[in-house]
Amino acid sequence: MKTIELTKGKVAIVDDEDYEGLASVRWHTSNSGYAKRNNPISQREILGFCEFMHRRIMGLPGKSKLEVDHINGDPLDNRKANLRICTHAENLRNQKMKKHNRSGLKGVHFHKQSGRWRSIIKVEGKSISLGLFETKDLAHQAYCDAAKRFFGEFANFGVAS
Predict the structure, then answer these.
(1) What predicted TM-score, i.e. pTM, was given to this entire model?
(2) Which CATH architecture has domain 98-152?
(3) Is the pLDDT of residue 16 over 80?
(4) Which CATH architecture fits 2-92?
């Protein structure tokens, strides 16, 4: 494992076998937190305006509709063991807990009308209510069970591992 220095004081983590090919190019940190580089003007028509490090490592051309998912959610951990090729829908399933979440648990919010904790999961654009629970931990367990069932290996429970 080696690191490549980026802008904004950040570093990308890569496997030893990928280091030389990547370190020979200048990379910077994108606004979304990924390692990327601008392609030379002469190559932009073929390669696109920019190249993301994780897509290069996985051999995914810029125009491919497939995506690369960072399994642990760290956009700068570009070791092959942390990357997997997926569809956009699969990538969305591995999202972290939203910043505005007030319960502290993914898929859980307080239901004022009942005075209980409600668990909801979104599947293929549709919200599915998983029920009302006495504690937020029970509601979160219902979310985790549903995430495993619907999302499989892409399930993200919103808790630090």
Answers:
(1) 0.81
(2) 2-Layer Sandwich (3.30)
(3) yes
(4) Alpha-Beta Complex (3.90)
